[in-house]
Amino acid sequence: MLIFPLINDQSRKIIHIDMDAFFAAVEERDNPDLQGKPVIIGADPRQTGGRGVVSTCNYQARKFGIHSAMSSKEAYERCPQAIFISGNYSKYRKIGRQLRDIFKRYTDLVEPLSIDEAYLDVTINKLGIKSAVKIARLIQKDIWDEHHLTCSAGVSYNKFLAKLASDFDKPHGLTLIMPEQAQEFLAQLPIEKFYGVGRQSVKKLHQLGVYKGEDLLKVPEMTLIDHFGRFGYDLYRKARGISNSPVKPDRIRKSVGSERTYGKLLYAENDIKAEISKNARRVANALVQNKKVGRIIVLKVRYADFSTLTKRTTLEQPTAEFEVIEGKAQEIFNSLEESSAGIRLLGVTVTGLTSGKTELLLDLRSENF
Ligand SMILES: [Mg+2]
Predict the structure, then answer these.
(1) Which domains does the chain have, with CATH numbers?
(2) CA atoms within 13 A on the CB side of 182
(3) Residue 23: which pLDDT band, with cuts at 50, 70 and 90?
């Protein structure tokens, strides 16, 4: 039997910063009338005939059990007095960039996880500050002073624990997990809180009798690998507070995708095909804009019952061409087992990206000939 050695790198100082109810907090800041009221960023179901989902909501709204990804309709039913705002994403992105500039005062090792979250490796930092907790506090202060927004910070020796720590005491929290505390922290943690464990994995883990971190410790490494592959290998280590993946600055784009959720389920084949085509068009445009080509076309379909299917196909030659991407995506759709269920989401993604410069050059040249 193969034995994989356990190496636990505890030499690093990692901070995870996560803005508190980011979009809603920005709107509250810019519109004092909203303060103290439940605020939801998402389509107002009274204006869309019940369509739309909650993108984020403030802590007032969360008291009513509202959370992101809930349908706007349900949110409205839970809290009719909530204020729905459709959201100003270019404003949020701009603030996101400004936050990143704050992080970069301390270290260039900044890995954005989304518009309002990032990992920072401050083991060696620009100000020569020894304490990562002190840096986390300074960042919280900078963000408050300059943007009047709050964030939560997690500090530990790896990304996995830092992320769990930032989530531990929201909003406006600061949690430190020392190497000697990691095991205890993870033992009591429900398995669905382990970052990276999705709904499907939770189901499988429950079947294995795993509900908390401490249960995970009892499952042999090979069993986890048998059930989850590479992810099982990671899980075995994460249960022991081990996660050595580095903070990757300015992540290189690995895929370009477009997906849409439909408030009104799609049934007619014509509608479905038209939506696949629209997604393919957006992906092709983005690829050209980013001077990328990709070899793998992925179609994602989510049905009315939330069951989700992704299927991929690999091309001989990488492409950014709309016709090829669209054609392949439609082909994948045709190959799926027929279903009478309505479709609530369609997505087209191109991955396996490489720089498109050579192909673009060839195209230009062939036009000249
Ligand atoms: Mg956040």
Answers:
(1) 22-90 (3.40.1170.60), 255-368 (3.30.1490.100)
(2) 24
(3) very high
